Amino acid sequence: MATTPNGFNLDNSGRRVVVDPVTRIEGHLRVEVNVDENNVIRNAVSTGTMWRGLELILQGRDPRDAWAFTQRICGVCTGTHALTSVRAVEDALDISIPENANSIRNLMQLTLQVHDHLVHFYHLHALDWVDVVSALNADPKATSELAQSISKWPLSSPGYFKDVQGRLKKFVESGQLGPFKNAYWGHPAYKLPAEANLMAVAHYLEALDFQKDIVKIHAIFGGKNPHPNWLVGGVPCAINLDGEGSVGAINMERLNMVSSIIDRCIEFTEQVYIPDLLAVASFYKGWLYGGGLSSKSVLSYGDIPDHANDYSAANLMLPRGAIINGDLSTVHEVDQRDPEQIQEFVDHSWYTYEGDAKGLHPFDGQTNPHFELGAGVKGDAKRIVNIDENAKYSWIKAPRWRGHAMEVGPLSRYIIGYAQGNPEFKEPVEAVLKHLDAPVSALFSTLGRTAARGLECQWAAHKMRYFFDKLIANIKAGDSATANTAKWDPAAWPKSAKGAGFTEAPRGALGHWVEIADGKIKSYQCIVPTTWNGSPRDAQGNIGAFEASLMDTPMADPEQPLEIIRTLHSFDPCLACSTHVMSPDGQEMAEVKVR
Amino acid sequence: MGETTETFYDVIRRQGISRRSFMKFCSLTAASLGLGPAFAAKIANAMETKPRIPVLWLHGLECTCCSESFIRSAHPLVKDVVLSMISLDYDDTIMAAAGHQAEAILEEVKTQYKGRYILAVEGNPPLKDGGVYCMPGGTPFVDKLKYMAEDAQAIISWGSCASWGCVQAAKPNPTEATPVHKVIKDKPIIKVPGCPPIAEVMTGVLTYILTFERMPDLDRQGRPKMFYSQRIHDKCYRRPHFDAGQFVEAWDDDNARKGYCLYKMGCKGPTTYNACSTTRWNEGVSFPIQSGHGCIGCSEDGFWDNGSFYDRVTDIKQFGIESTADKVGVAAATTVGAAVAAHAALSLVKRAQQKGSQSDEN
Prior knowledge:
The structure holds two protein chains of two kinds. Chain A is an alpha+beta fold. Chain A contains 16 helices and 20 strands. In chain A, strand 17 and strand 18 (508-517) form a beta hairpin. The two termini of chain A are 26 Å apart. In chain B, 54% of the residues are buried. The radius of gyration of chain B is 24 Å and the shape is elongated. Helix content of chain B is 35%, strand content 8%. At the A-B interface, helix 1, helix 4, helix 6, helix 7 and helix 8 of A face helix 2, helix 3, helix 4, helix 5 and strand 2 of B.
């Protein structure tokens, strides 16, 4: 038994349970836990099991292309890496963007927040709370009464729910359960009555239909989704309301489509997502495990600049700051360029540094892959049975803020906004707590993470309206500019330059650091939300956010790891994001040793 | 692919499994769901009629943009695909089960639907160092891919990762990320490239197989001709501006606002085989060129290593719209002589000549 510096008592003597693959996430994640004789988790180990090396691939390329490469870090949070990248390059080259470009970028980023949160709740996370098979036992009439008691959403008649149930029944009776096969139906950790399960299944299907419409905003401004197009210096789409050729530009018809989608986002979020979230939460408010680092150390870079080209905290609509050691009375200022603040460690990651054990700021970052299984590993590199957390054990690095392991994401943003007393974040949190008759401490939990995401989805939908109106007002005032091309030509660039770009991705704080020399990328580093959350241990023994969140959770049956995946999903992990980092040129690429 | 009409029951009987064992399997399936004996009979009935084809969707090194695109499908809606058309028995991005419960499904389908399931692959395997750069389930992805391919009837390579290698295979390809067809050589492989492919192209390929019970016609590179036989440039609505020599010269200039051709801004439409300019994206709302950015050529092999996305294509032969990928082949993506750049200048002349000859005829 050992106590980590960040306050968790680890005991790996009990039965070891492995969950690999962790499904319903982006990418590949493995988790191992030890449970005690009461099946309570006493040790947790999370391993990123993939690595692509994108930052090495970026070296020597045109910095104006970097958005397209980095966007392929993740197709789920599509766009947010591209936005972070163009901001990093613009920061390095001192390029300002037009006001309309800022509004359109914000509209695209907020579209992603709404889409990503909605798809996460219904399609990646809901099955951790909702027992699909139990919905077969629901009374459609009672389901209708339940739905109408919590929302005015029109699809709520007994006949509607009877049809949904009929389709589900036919599906189950086919014996081919597709994505619902071999799951945990009937598990004691499911708490919803059959009617709530049926309602959730209906909304799972409705949300699946609706989500494809949300991203049409990306198609309008960026040509496609996933992976819309971006531009250093602004946005690629031109505005032409009533001149020659306006049918091929952002015109009234296009703007009307954006506006109508925003209305539907607000409506769906407020009439379906939030009521479902509250209904689910009301049955699970006694299950407040999974808090992990959220009550201790949280980080947010902030995002959604109100005015163009101002990335100071005061101009960012999503909060910026760091809270450490659970002291909500102090929100620390965060500076991505300060080498003392953000550092990455690789003691337990499959990389090696010159002078190991030293943390490196991303401007000085190195990443030399070095796969090596620890002495305590069971199995081998062809078949890992158990990982050894005392050695290197993950493709994810361990970033730290002033030495602290941090949690990032919607809950972190809401905690920081709450601590800052910002009413846009504090009031909805208080309303939810009041509705559920729950104390503030309930926030620091799996359920709190899930609830914060829902609140943020609603917030983002309304902010889409704000930036749409702002865009219209600016065009009305005579400004149609969408790109600044003064420094498009590399001849206008300094011989060398460094820049940092940041966003709040749906999953949390995202930063890119670029160094440009002679018109090409010299080095490129990313620290992504799941690098923070999925971080392995560091040299001091601090465990990361995923690991911390699993600690002390009781499992009904370790063979059926519903509680584990429920808590992990509450972070919305994105593994392709977290495990792609790379090295400066010329370094040895990899060395594989299996002891 | 006529064997797809064989029922699950036919297959297991053919494999020598008794009716009694079959009924026991149905009872266990029902019981595992907490359902009564009545359901077992219904499951048995379904199994004795035509089953939905199982699709196993594996993920290697990738970014999940293909899955995200797939769920955007508007016709058919993805819920109808999953509930009524195929049996998506394994897809780590959306499946309810995790860990060994998830992995058990692979083994079960491999055995029970031997030679009949479709293996859909998103992403690709890294081969360097035995494949340690992608280890889902504690095993190198390349091993899992080979094992699951053994008994598949066909493989769909979703997207540019599975088809060509895509971003992780861009130089210097640190993990030796390798497209599926270079690892699996004894199965029919349908490449559906794009980063990602268009949603309705993905569901279109899948439903074509289900509806017509055959593989789609493929071009020499293994892509379905129905979606990949013409270049974006061939059907681009801005093509008349190209032919008229009207080009965007700088972002957001007057010509950009008028929707002129993006060729000079680096558009790769002239060398990219895809359906973007016709099928378009997100229920036909737009495609990259329509929203003001050139095509970056994301469905072409090695598109990350063909210079900057903003360098104009200068070494591509101008050939007629009637030429197909088959006729032009791999060469189209690389070099074939005379320049499109020249065409940009020549097009006005050519048009004038055509006009002239027309008026001659009149």
